[in-house]
Specification:
CATH architecture of the largest domain: Orthogonal Bundle
Strand content: under 5%
Shape: globular
CATH superfamily of the largest domain: MetI-like
Strand order of the largest sheet: 1-2
Number of helices: 14
Low-confidence stretches: none
CATH class of the largest domain: Mainly Alpha
CATH topology of the largest domain: MetI-like fold
Largest sheet: 2 strands, antiparallel
Number of strands: 2
Mean pLDDT: 84
Length: about 290
């Protein structure tokens, strides 16, 4: 028969478990009320549809069948996925070198680079949109400068699929850089010096020492980027083409212009289905980091 040490009995405070539950009760309630319940309600409204005669409702997947059989809807979904993939790739190509520079550099120049990398976080999307139009749009600043030196005009990305890509990449640089810099904090200077002592070059040091330690941070950055891009509205609406369009403007136009809330909710549920995959990657990464 084993006896519980007296120190363990003294260390246990009565009601600690109840206090912990009370502390998380309000956040859990808000998540259930403002996130989980709207999701379940949206799914219910798209599969339990009122009959045409108004005599009742019945289970139906008609709206989902229409979406996946309508070429215009599929084109909008494809453009959203293409934009998301291109933006995620460009963000990694741009932000990883910036994060590496900020992690291993000191001085005023590094501080200025960090300030420039974080600056887009404080610029509203609508201001960014019109700034890009004035710079890259027809007869914008770039066209005026090229004309001043007798060079031909370039094809403007404004109102093309590349317009939202440029705006979304610029808008998501701050969060991506902050996540990557945070992940690089786990890379010690001693490990970098040890790799250099055995003759490893910069590429080998990055590939075998740095990259494995920031893989979770890269996954988290991609997850946040994908979730933000699927919910983006202002930049795709202002900078992107009218057709095909990303899911954000597509849902808004279906709801307002076509006056079809059920179809708009169906589009939102489908977008959520893609987002939840990357959300699960994020949850798995967090759980893996917290595991003993």
């Amino acid at each position: 028969m084993s006896l519980t040490p007296a120190s363990d009995i003294v260390g246990k405070k009565p009601g600690r478990g109840l206090s912990g539950l009370l502390l998380v009760a309000i956040p859990v309630f808000l998540v259930c009320w403002m996130v989980i319940w709207p999701i379940l309600s949206a799914i219910w409204r798209t599969v339990w549809i009122r009959n045409d005669g108004g005599t009742g409702s019945s289970f139906s997947l008609e709206t989902y069948q229409f979406f996946f059989s309508d070429q215009y809807s599929l084109n909008n979904l494809y453009v959203t996925l293409w934009t998301t993939a291109v933006c995620a790739a460009l963000l990694l190509l741009i932000c990883i070198p910036i994060a590496l520079y900020l992690r291993f550099s000191t001085g005023k120049l590094a501080a200025y680079v960090q300030g420039l990398a974080i600056f887009p976080m404080f610029v509203p999307s609508i201001i960014l949109s019109y700034a890009l139009i004035r710079v890259l749009g027809p007869n914008g600043t770039v066209d005026l400068l090229l004309n001043a030196v007798s060079l031909p005009k370039i094809r403007s990305p404004y109102l093309t699929p590349w317009g939202p890509v440029i705006g979304l990449v610029w808008d998501n640089i701050p969060l991506t850089v902050l996540i990557l810099v945070s992940g690089l904090g786990s890379v010690s200077n001693q490990s970098i010096e040890a790799a250099r002592d055995v003759g490893a070059g910069r590429i080998a040091t990055f590939w075998y020492i740095i990259l494995p330690r920031i893989s979770n941070s890269i996954l988290v950055a991609i997850s946040f980027t994908v979730l933000g891009l699927f919910s983006a509205f202002t930049l795709p609406y202002v900078l992107g083409p009218a057709a095909p369009e990303m899911m954000g403007p597509f849902m808004q136009r279906t709801f307002r212009d076509l006056n079809d809330p059920v179809m708009a909710i169906t589009q939102a549920v489908i977008a959520f289905g893609f987002c939840i995959v990357f959300g699960l990657f994020y949850v798995r990464s967090v759980a893996k980091n917290r595991a003993p």
